[in-house]
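Two proteins were folded this term; both appear here.
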Amino acid sequence: MKKSIIFLAFLVIIASLSVANANVGYDITNKDYSGTYKAGCTVPKSPNSDSSRVKENYMYGDYNFPVAGVTEYGAIFLDISSCSYYVDNGVAYVSCLTYYGSGGSDGNGNAAKHSPKTFKFCTYKGDGVRIIKFLSAVNPKTGADSTADAYKWDNGFLKSLFWNAAYYSELSQYLD
């Protein structure tokens, strides 16, 4: 009797974990940039093609770190070499490292400080429609989790960052 109760409890735990895994993350499938800036929000930004503005569009002018987003505090740079993905049971997981610029600017117009943050996403097909979920935003140095705040203040940045990470990791060639 005791063994069957333990077995049933084990099955309940496994079943609850399986259901929880299907509902992990924030659905950002339809969360596009609204076209207007709201105080506190993070918006997507692509590098300006004007070569005279390189410093504004790349961290320290390095083309491996394009601007991926903007907040009222500064630019967010994407480390394109960090973008990676893997696929597990029909779900693609993609992550990338970003740097939030802050602390004023150095003598060349670049942000004086950069805070790292790793973003993770997943995507899969559901009823013929691509679903994109934002899983986490964590500082890799401190472990500070800012997932809830990143989602709360998102104004299209997360979906844009997902597609940038998918492109640079080469996952996008498998997505429709």
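Next, the second protein.
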Amino acid sequence: MIKRFLVISAAVALLGACGGQDVHTPAPIGNLVRPGAAPWLTVAGGTGKLEVRGLDHKVILEPSPDLSAAVQSQLGEQLQADYFQDLVVTCTSLTTTMHVDEDKAPGSVAMNLGLHCAVWSRGLDTNHDYKAEVSTAVASGAGDEAYAQALPKLLADGSGDIAGQLRGDLHKLTHSAH
């Protein structure tokens, strides 16, 4: 019994030593943010850090500025042509996850992006959850920084997907108002 306990303790100690290192990587995403892109659209929520899951060690991206500012700017820019008078779009509950599937696609990283948006215009309103899953290749040999370098493309692509979904709802809203 004692021998078994010692073997288990040694295994736990070894595992703890291997996976115990957290790699924090800055992830600049400022090039996605355009001030004043669409004052009628806001995005709130999200976390200050983003873990890349599926790796044999922990990689935590630290986006700057925050994710909600980047998504808000991207959505506003892509939906600017769809704006109509008295339109207000408020998105909350921003969720983002990044993951790598070492078995199926070791050279790429995927992101799930989600938002809950309320759209108001001329007394009509609608609420929906929007979700997007996008992926991109990561530079081989770039180490953990490759995930930080992939983040802007993932955010732009995911925001583009959600903008398309939101655009459909905006068009429905404009047609029901007439």
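Confidence is low (pLDDT under 50) at residues 1-19. The radius of gyration is 21 Å. These notes refer to the second protein only.
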